[in-house]
Amino acid sequence: MTPPRHAAVELDALVKRYGPRAAVDGISLRAERGAVTALLGPNGAGKTTTVEICEGYRRPDSGTVRVLGLDPVRDARELRPRVGVMPQSGGVPGTARAGEFLRLVAAFYAHPLDPAALLERLGLTAHARTPYRRLSGGQQQRLSLAAAVVGRPELVFLDEPTAGLDPQARHATWELVAGLRAAGAGVILTTHHMEEAERLSDQVVIVDQGRVVARGTPAELTGAERQLRFRARPGLGLDELLAALPVGSAAKESPAGHYLIEGDVQPELLATVTAWCASHGVLTEDLRIERRTLEDVFLELTGRELRP
Ligand SMILES: Nc1ncnc2c1ncn2[C@@H]1O[C@H](COP(=O)(O)OP(=O)(O)OP(=O)(O)O)[C@@H](O)[C@H]1O
């Protein structure tokens, strides 16, 4: 009988306090192998703390954490060759040349990827002999990503991997993540780019103030609902428009001149809105019907106020 395959990460009722404040306040989640799990949340929500507990860099105050079925602190030696970590910054000596560094990291693993091919994939071949500290911020980040994946990890933690990257590097990173997933690795991704999370992940977990506030596939979270948006002169009489729409519809103007109609968006509703606008001499611009985005859902759940 083959032994059971453990999930990539399993957290149960995880708590981590800094002084009286709980940075992580009872997070439970299960991230599968061969899947990308995005951890989303406003600044200070507890994402990095959660990931660092999984990486074995911090111990929780309570709750359990299993990484590939193992304890990240007690079983650190066994996990090290199986888990890749891309931190938000640092981790590479400033004088290390990009190519040498990646070959050195690769040498720690039994079946690494070809470092030269990986450099090429991430557009770093021309910088292979450049010391780390002379690389641009985006190039440094790409090298950290390469170092995190060169050992063919079963699980990889990517902390904001595309923050500050140019569009080309962002796409190369997305392809790399898709490749890891296809190769059966579990990927835990923290990001503030909702479009990135929507595009890459199988599962999204939204945390706020140390707690999970929503989880599901991007499609489950955004739902099947559509909404209608248009621009027009500010101050339209929305109460009057609303009276013409099916019961249960909602209409708002925010910011001035930008209108959003929510409800059962069917052809009749579109016809009613355009007819109402025509009868009021209103020319709409950028009229479009769209699904809610993950960013809409994220802002609804976590609010629009800036986090201290
Ligand atoms: N070593 C520490 N000592 C005290 N407080 C800490 C420490 N590390 C993190 N915190 C606090 O814990 C909370 C969660 O921080 P964390 O870095 O996990 O958030 P995050 O979701 O990763 O945020 P960001 O999106 O800004 O990276 C924050 O309020 C932070 O100030």
Automatic annotation (TrEMBL):
Keywords: Antibiotic resistance, ATP-binding, Cell membrane, Membrane, Nucleotide-binding, Translocase, Transport
SMART domains: AAA (SM00382)
Membrane topology: Peripheral membrane protein
CDD domains, per database record: ABC_DR_subfamily_A
Ranges where the ABC transporter domain occurs: 9-234
Chief location of this protein within or outside the cell: membrane
Cited Pfam families: ABC_tran
InterPro entries tied to this protein: AAA+_ATPase, ABC_transporter-like_ATP-bd, ABC_transporter-like_CS, ABC_transporter_ATP-binding, P-loop_NTPase
GO annotation, biological process: response to antibiotic
4Fe-4S as UniProt keyword: no
GO annotation, cellular component aspect: plasma membrane
GO MF annotation terms: ATP binding; ATP hydrolysis activity
Organism domain of life: Bacteria
Subcellular location(s) of the protein: Cell membrane
This protein's name: ABC-2 type transport system ATP-binding protein
